[in-house]
Amino acid sequence: MLVNVAGVMDNFSSADGVSDEVWERVMAVNLTVPVKMMRAVLPRMKEKGEGVIVNVASTAAASGAVAGVTYTASKHGLVGGHSFFLARTWRIDIDVLEYAWGKLTR
Fold first, then answer.
1. How far apart are CA 16 and CA 97, in angstroms?
2. Which of these is catalytic: 46, 71, 99, 103?
């Protein structure tokens, strides 16, 4: 089982205000690493003929109005990657699940 739950927020910048540093850090944690993790576990899951992958997305992937451009784009990318892996794995009994939540508050 793989659970991609790590994520970092951006600084709520728009496209004309986000720095390269923020863009690269948020994209690396929120999109690049989860895709690399899925890529790493899929060969073994295919070999076994089973597995579970859970990707934690965000409401930002649907609304686009809860964060900055970088966080929103990274979560859109994760949802797209999730859909891709789901389409490629349904025949071999690998469950690819997505869980989206908003900001957690007390």
1. 34
2. 71
